[in-house]
Design brief:
single chain; alpha/beta; Aspartate Aminotransferase, domain 1; Aspartate Aminotransferase, domain 2; 2 domains; seven-stranded mixed sheet; four-stranded mixed sheet; 16 helices; 14 strands; globular; binds pyridoxal-5'-phosphate
Length: about 450
């Protein structure tokens, strides 16, 4: 590309960014203004835009352990953890070394590589429901492929999802979706055709009678049911006793493929995700986030008879130029092996309970209705008088109070998710003075309401 320097210079001056660049001043505000001119909304993923909490998103210059350092030089204790993957905290030395070793051998081969085999062995060892597995480059690709596979396996058109569950930005799953789609006010995305949406049936989480009726109204048509076993993209919602077993029963009865989306919960709640905490066995499992150790990754796996429908063995096409990428495999293997070796889950549960108890005590002292669902290193805040069991109850919570807590915490060095509909995460790196400091700030944030 030819760059017309004088023109670039004058337009930079006109936009007032030239002096900033010359002086080496790259504040978050200035970076965001530059980004806004070129990147839609200034961000490469919508939840980063701070639109639901207001203000300008900060840019992160570096991250270490439980802390982010912003472009403005502020240090923040991070409860977002790159939206889940960083269970060992940021910039973990073991993961960094694994990436460095892999880097010395090359970044991508386009042929099978030994690390893919190690990763497959590891995932099968951790998830008893997974007998065969395929790697992808994102959680979105994993859920998209799992759904196509369920349709190819059953020869049926429809899928069931639950309102408020987020499964990545797959067309057929952007119907009543959670996470950024909900935060930005478009859980039903534009650009999804009525035909596509018509094959997606939406059910209410924790409501088995309604689900049974939905199955009865669509007998012989439902290829797959996809669920976040513990929904974590509309805040955190936990299943009623018997709900997941009820899903298994209905799917078995109707010949529907039961898909657990454990992209968020896999390796976060236990080595087998939620499947370490209950006895329900899905047909397919989607994974991502932690198994990439901070690099882009996803995976889906399950029963061999279903997985063997994938190309090149079967008729369901699925592919990826960079799938099983050696750097991502190396990072993920290091992350998961460290979890296997250290078993941090009991420690993370203690940290999670401490944050929950801090928030609940502060809310009680102020007489403010607050629910803090928490499991292990995951928790969220619902300003609600009632326990939240589904999407409708989640969005009926008071978002303004959340925004105030978010803002106070950020101003005092603690970064919560910039949306009332996201789950907060803890890492092993939060132990010690970081958790002490964070709890002091969160307590004050609620008392300041
Ligand atoms: C993050 C997430 C996805 C999407 O993963 P990406 O890597 O962002 O595509 C899918 N399902 C769940 C439950 C998630 O939390």
């Amino acid at each position: 590309m030819q760059v017309n320097f004088p023109l670039a210079l004058s337009s930079a001056l006109a936009e007032g960014v030239f002096s900033a660049r010359c002086l080496g001043v790259n504040s978050s505000e200035q970076l965001f203004q530059r980004a806004l001119a070129m990147i839609p909304g200034g961000v490469n993923s919508p939840v980063r835009a701070f639109r639901s909490v207001g203000g300008t998103p900060f840019f992160t210059k570096s991250a270490n352990g439980a802390r982010l350092t912003t472009a403005d030089g502020q240090e923040l204790i991070d409860f977002v953890l790159t939206w889940g993957p960083a269970i060992h905290g940021h910039n973990d030395p073991e993961i960094r070394n694994a990436i460095r070793d892999a880097l010395d051998r090359g970044t991508s081969f386009g042929t099978p590589n030994p690390l893919e085999v190690e990763m497959a062995e590891l995932l099968l060892a951790c998830f008893p429901a997974v007998k065969k597995v395929r790697m992808t480059n994102s959680g979105t690709e994993a859920t998209m492929s799992a759904i196509r596979l369920a349709r190819g396996f059953t020869g049926r058109p429809k899928i069931i999802k639950f309102s408020g569950c987020y499964h990545g930005h797959v067309d057929s799953l952007l119907v009543k979706a959670g996470s950024g789609a909900l935060t930005q006010g478009n859980p039903d995305s534009a650009g999804v055709t009525p035909g596509t949406a018509a094959d997606t049936l939406v059910a209410e989480y924790n409501n088995l009678p309604a689900l049974a009726a939905l199955f009865e109204a669509n007998v012989g048509q439902v290829a797959g049911l996809i669920v976040e076993p513990f929904p974590a993209n509309v805040g955190l919602i936990l299943p009623d006793a018997g709900f997941l077993a009820g899903l298994r029963e209905l799917c078995t009865k109707h010949g529907t493929v039961l898909i657990f989306d454990e992209v968020m919960t896999g390796f976060r709640l236990s080595l087998a995700g939620t499947q370490g905490l209950h006895t329900v066995v899905p047909d397919l499992v989607c994974m991502g986030k932690i198994i990439g150790g901070g690099l882009p990754v996803g995976a889906f796996g399950g029963k061999a008879e279903i997985m063997d429908k994938l190309a090149p063995l079967g008729p369901v096409y699925q592919a990826g130029t960079l799938s099983g990428n050696p750097l991502a495999m190396a990072a993920g293997l290091a992350a998961v092996r460290k979890l296997q070796r250290e078993n941090p889950y009991p420690r993370l549960e203690v940290l999670g309970q401490r944050v929950r108890d801090t928030l609940l005590a502060a809310a009680k002292a102020k007489g403010i209705p607050l629910q803090v669902p928490q499991v292990g290193s995951m928790f969220s805040l619902f300003f609600n008088t009632e326990k939240v069991r589904n999407y409708d109850q989640a969005i009926a919570s008071n978002g303004d109070l959340y925004r105030k807590v978010f803002r106070y915490a950020l101003d005092h060095g603690v970064y919560l998710a910039p949306s009332p509909y996201e789950t907060a995460f803890l890492s092993t790196a939060h132990e010690g003075k970081d958790i002490d400091q964070a709890c002091t700030v969160l307590d004050a944030a609620v008392r300041a309401l």
